[in-house]
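In this supplementary section we document a worked example of the pipeline. Step one takes a protein sequence of length 203 as its only input; no multiple sequence alignment statistics are reported here. Step two produces a three-dimensional model, which step three serialises into structure tokens for compact storage. The input and output of this example are shown verbatim.
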Amino acid sequence: MDIQRALKQLTEIKKLGGDMRLAAEEWKSPWQTLIAIILSARTRDEVTIEVCKKLFAQYPDAKSLASASVSQIESMIKSVNFYRNKTKSIINCSRIIFQDYGGSVPHDFEKLIDLPGVGRKTANVFLAEFDHDAIGVDTHVSYISQKLGWVKSSHPHKIEQELKQLFPSSYWGKLNLYLVRFGKEYTSRKKKDELLEKIKAVR
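The serialised model returned by step three reads:
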């Protein structure tokens, strides 16, 4: 894939993707951002955002959530998928952040993926949100990247590496944002594929 062609296609993706707010965006602190990303896995962003508003109103920082009871948090986040597992993750994650990092989320990939509930995608989405050169590969990034021929692999880690080889690092942090907004804007697979075929033809 030619880099100039890929950049033109990315520009089209951005234009068509709308400006909906995603779960990772516009929270008051890095800790809130990280918790929102953890909760957003397999859950619609609009649902996650409303849950987080209520959660953060009562538990605004790592210290407060670290001491919360499982039953309290489960009742507050039950509208997100896998809420029981996520409850344990965000409480334990907050406890480590408070105890080991003084309440501040580390901006280091290896330290992030050691936290409960934080995998490679979550860590990369978090880092990208704070202007680090990182690519979070979710289902939207995976599907669109393969459809446009940007990558050959279907494995998230390999997709991440192939995208890093294709795009300059200055674009890495925006790839997830643009592709996810596009993916969520067109919920019809037929419509999405029609648009991707047109974008694929861009030279």
